[in-house]
Amino acid sequence: MIFLTGLRHSVGVSFRMKKGIKFHSIYYRYYLFIVVILPLLFLWTITEKSGEKLELFQGMVSIGQEEINYILSGISLFLILLFSFIGWKCSIGEEGIYLCKIDLLVPWTEITAVSHVWINEAHYVRKKFLFYNRKTLVVYRKDYKPICIYNISLLGLYAVKFYHPEIRTNLMTASLATTFNLILNSTLLYGVVTKSYQFENTVIWTILYFIKAFILPVLMLAGQNKKYGNALKHATIYSINASDAIHV
Q1: pLDDT in tens, 130-189
Q2: Distance separating alpha carbons of residues 102 and 139, to the nearest angstrom
Q3: Which residues pair with 113 in a beta bridge?
Q4: CA distance linking residue 118 with residue 173, whole number of Å
């Protein structure tokens, strides 16, 4: 999610940098998808057994597919708007890429390439195993370690090309991967909402999500490491930030 707003600025950033495109974390989408898909599956299972609607409080409240769709749509819209205004991680503008968290401006003259990859996060927290494809904007620099900006939309790469068209990126492969991810999630969500999803095709969906969660991230990192050195690594249970880079 991007915003052309200058409401929040950090000390030392020039006026032109303030006018850059600000990018917020998209990590909330991971939980939002779970919050949407699980109630839909639950309601589908219940209504298939008990009838068209789920009766609550001794019949005082009836919830069907249409009602739950409106409720979840409202929740989704609220969360998207909320996290689109709460903080921002980086700004891309005419002078370069500014990192809000560490108050660092990386000028274009120092940047050799920028890529968008998926770095897997896998760790054990509070007796729960968490796994997530962190959408990462990687800024490669001359004579310095690269910078991994986690949970940034692919639009960040398009912003880089807008301000600095000559810079090297993996725009094509990253766009294809993101398109595959969007189609996969949207198709699954549509199938559950419209009750057109066939449970006998679960094996196919499992294979597709395995490709999305493991195969694509491995290929993306392998391609970038081949070009710019073996700096990027997937996280493990023992090391969340395994890449030899600055983590933001």
Answers
A1: 678 899 999 999 989 999 999 999 999 999 999 999 999 999 999 999 999 999 988 887
A2: 14
A3: 140, 168
A4: 12
Separation of alpha carbons 240 and 224, rounded Å: 20
pLDDT digits (tens, 9 = 90+) for 56-81: 555 555 666 666 666 666 776 776 67
The residues, ordered by sequence, that sit 6+ positions from 145 with a Cβ below 8 Å of its Cβ are: 231, 244, 245, 246
Q: Which pTM does this prediction carry? A: 0.77
Which amino acid type is present at position 189? L
Task: Considering only the C-alpha atoms of the chain, give the largest distance between any 2 of them, rounded to a whole number of Å.
Answer: 69
What does the chain look like in DSSP terms, one character per residue? -EE---SS--TT--HHHHTSEEE---THHHHHHHHHHHHHHHHHHHHHHH-SSEEETTTTEEE-HHHHHHHHHHHHHHHHHHHHHS--SEEE-SSEEEETTTTEEEEGGGEEEEEEEEEEEEEEETTEEEEEEEEEEEEEETTEEEEEE-S--THHHHHHHHH-TTSB--HHHHHHHHHHHHHHHHHHHHHHHTT---GGGHHHHHHHHHIIIIIHHHHHHHHHHHHH-S------SS-S--SSSEE-
104 is written with which tokens? Answer: 């660092």
Distance (Å, rounded) from C-alpha 217 to C-alpha 118?
5
Question: Residue 106: what residue type?
Answer: V
Q: Any idea which residue has 């880079």 for tokens?
A: 245
